[in-house]
Amino acid sequence: MDRKYVTETVLADTAGIARGVDILRAGGLVAVPTETVYGLAARADSEEAVGQIFEAKGRPAFNPLIVHVLDIAAAEAIAEIDERARMLADRFWPGPLTMVLSRRPDAQLAPQIAAGLPTVAVRSPAHPAMRAILEGLGKALAAPSANASETVSPTSAAHVLATLDGRIDAVVDGGPTERGLESTIIALREDGRWSLLREGPITRQDLDSVLGEETPSNGAIEAPGQLARHYAPGKPVRLNARHAEEGEFLIGFGSVTGDVTLSESGDINEAARNLYACLHWAREAPQLRIAVAAIPDEGIGKAINDRLRRAAAPGS
Ligand code: AMP
Ligand code: MG
């Protein structure tokens, strides 16, 4: 891909935040740490700025973006917030829960954000750097993960630069992210039903505890960007491995020791935090193939396994 910019790296301190806010206000692109992964932010109200997100990432136009807001009051300006949305926000915001809601007709949003859908996906992030930027700018930000489309998501500034150096204005370096996996996405439908569109740090049990059992979607709401192939490290990936076979880089977990490990002690939250860093190491390793140990399919392990299945899906 062409380099169009000299990408600045700034720290997540007062000066760095101020610089990020200035670039964003002027319509630029800034990668910002959130508690999930690094997001590639642009003003949500600018068609031109949002268009540049798609261009920098090579993201297909049918894949809608999540809008990041400071709080529920800011969400109310763009989406219809019903009682369920309010209860979820009370419980899980700021935090890694994205809600797909009906879009307000007067929402100040660039049209590409919704990719033609009547809805909008919103979340209120918890990371202090992202919150300081939202506060300084005083506007909502569109922010998908800060990586080229289909590649492994970034949990550090170095991961951002691995695919977007020269394609964005700046990255705010806030160190490694805390949760390590993208937000959970829930669709709240107007008929009172809800469905889980993407597994993430807020589990189905967490949502059940607020809303009651999930009701199956009849297909009226879908998550268009949820492609089978995603998070691709550029090499074949074998799942549920016990040992490395010849030519494989092994990502271990618990008793399966590998070239690197998701968590030596078998801690599932630590594994979520380390997943993308391990996939980035595997991508850079000399071995031509990757093997990954089995991960228990419970709690955030469901989200880890969802991402691993997509990383292992065969390429086109
Ligand atoms: P990313 O920001 O790269 O983590 O991707 C955001 C994902 O959110 C998209 O790929 C969609 O699956 C989902 N999404 C965003 N907006 C909507 C929407 N209006 N309706 C359904 N899903 C959405
Ligand atoms: Mg992404």
Q: What does this protein look like?
A:
This protein has 316 residues and is of the alpha/beta class. The chain folds into two domains: 8-211, DHBP synthase (Alpha-Beta Complex); 237-311, no CATH class. Helices cover 29% and strands 18% of the residues. The chain has helices spanning 14-25, 47-57, 72-76, 83-92, 128-137, 157-164, 204-211, 268-284, 301-312, and strands at 8-11, 30-33, 38-43, 66-68, 97-102, 119-123, 141-142, 170-173, 184-188, 194-198, 237-238, 248-252, 260-261, 289-292. The chain has a ten-stranded mixed β-sheet, with helices on both faces. The protein has a four-stranded parallel β-sheet with strand order 11-14-12-13, covered by helices on one side. Strand 2 and strand 3 (38-43) form a beta hairpin. Helix 1 crosses helix 5.
CATH class of the largest domain: Alpha Beta
The number of distinct structural domains comes to 2
Distance between the termini: 19 Å
Strand element count? 14
CATH architecture of the largest domain: Alpha-Beta Complex
Tell me the name of the CATH homologous superfamily of the largest domain: DHBP synthase
β content, as a range? 15-25%
Q: Can you tell me the CATH topology of the largest domain?
A: DHBP synthase
Give the % helix: 25-40%
Unreliable residue stretches: none
Biggest sheet architecture: 10 strands, mixed
| Overall radius of gyration | 19 Å
SSE class: alpha/beta
Could you give the order of the helices and strands? EHEEHEHHEEHEHEEEHEEEHEH
**What's the overall average pLDDT, rounded?**
94
Give the overall shape, derived from the CA principal axes. Answer: globular
Q: Which hetero ligands occur in this complex?
A: adenosine monophosphate, magnesium ion
Helix count equals 9
Strand order of the largest sheet: 1-8-2-3-7-4-6-5-9-10
